[in-house]
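Batch manifest, entry 17 of 40.
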Amino acid sequence: MEQTASWLQRVGALLVDWIASTLVVMLLIGAGGWSENQFAGLYTMGVFILESTVLTALVGGSFGKLALRLRVVRFDRSGRPVSLLMALVRSVMVCLVIPPLVFRPDGRGLHDMVAGTSTVLLRDVINGVGSRG
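Output type: structure tokens
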């Protein structure tokens, strides 16, 4: 059976995403603008939601997840990609912080349960571990 990625791997991916999103905002408004703008954190969150949503729907994971060789898959293992709407719901829920901290024994957080997804290792996806017929 396919196991979910560890919390350490997920936190690492989120850290990579947040740093990348912060750098994008700094490129757009400048380092000085980023440090002085009271909305810079919201801009960073907006970039994170956008990149996480689009990349999850298109290639199966945010920039951080791709970099750490994790993938977001549909829990039903249908092989279909995560829909753009469910990827958006999932990304927004991650930004609410509490949903990822509320989780099932199988490691799926509330954001995954609501979106019908699971975060797994790329090697399991490639090897087809746990896929349903």
